[in-house]
Amino acid sequence: MIHKKSREDIKRMRHAGHIVALVHKEMKRVIEPGISTKELDSIAYGIIRQNKAQPTFLGYNGFPANICTSINHQVVHGIPAEDVILKEGDIVSVDVGATYAGLVGDSAWTYAVGKIDAELQRLMNATEEALFSAIKQMREGHVLDDVSGAVELTAQREKLGIVRQYGGHGVGRRMHEDPFLFNYKVGDKTVLKQGYAIAIEPMLNLGADEVAVEADNWTVSTVDKKASAHFEHSVLVTDSEPLVLTQLIPDGLT
């Protein structure tokens, strides 16, 4: 069942989303060769707690960290560690969730570590484009397949693999709510209505679609070990333009 968000829910989700955006702003600043993913995790935790929120991921189904850090061929759910050091030419997806007053903000971004090669840049650009193309479809009266199809079209044009076992999801009082959102068309004609909030998260690969869970029972990686990129925003259907909930509020938190 899809739950419409009330005015108070939306206010709190925007607050949570602002905190998530603050984390990403700092990630963009500090990510460079030589930093460990554990240090990124600690920085994120500090920002979330300083803003009177809780890290949504910590303890979620037993997840042992505050954020997910997935490097190169890792797609999602990578666990930060002191001995995992970012290197020149890597790309790293940082997935962040913050819960404020019972409501969740959830967003991921893929960052270049120093200078990266042209193919990795193409992958990142296309995956980010897929996200924003999908956001444009988050309008009242459209259907879920319109959102999914926008991701698929970008992937097909760029000849990129699409991660099919994982996708977007409703978000609100829980991190994962209905509906599930595929990153390709499946014939889902669920009509979008004002008040629906969905975390849209394209995951596209330089190689094939196939992914598998690694031995830590969390990290998802491409089977062919080719790079993957991941971008995500939580987005609200309104009576006009889609509202990105996981962005900085210009005047700060109110």
Walk me through this protein's architecture:
The chain has helices at 7-30, 37-50, 118-136, 144-158; strands spanning 54-55, 67-71, 74-76, 91-100, 103-112, 161-162, 168-170, 177-181, 197-200, 203-205, 211-213, 220-222, 228-230, 233-236, 243-244. With 254 residues, the chain is an alpha+beta fold. It has a single domain, classed as Creatinase/methionine aminopeptidase superfamily (Creatine Amidinohydrolase, Alpha-Beta Complex), CATH 3.90.230.10. A hairpin with a 6-residue loop joins strand 7 and strand 8.
What's the short version?
With 254 residues, this protein is α+β, with helices and mostly antiparallel strands.
What string, H for helix and E for strand, traces the elements in order? Answer: HHEEEEEHHEEEEEEEEEE
Helical residues, percent:
25-40%
CATH class: Alpha Beta
The domain count comes to 1
**What strand line-up does the widest sheet have?**
8-7-9-14-15
Count of alpha/pi helices: 4
Largest sheet: 5 strands, antiparallel
Give the overall average pLDDT: 97
Strand content: 15-25%
Q: Work out the radius of gyration.
A: 17 Å
List the helices and strands and how they pair.
Blueprint: H1 7-30, H2 37-50, E1 54-55, E2 67-71, E3 74-76, E4 91-100, E5 103-112, H3 118-136, H4 144-158, E6 161-162, E7 168-170, E8 177-181, E9 197-200, E10 203-205, E11 211-213, E12 220-222, E13 228-230, E14 233-236, E15 243-244
Antiparallel strand pairs: 1-4, 2-4, 3-12, 4-5, 6-10, 7-8, 7-9, 9-14, 10-13, 11-12, 14-15
Features:
4 helices; 254 residues; Creatine Amidinohydrolase; four-stranded antiparallel β-sheet; globular; alpha+beta
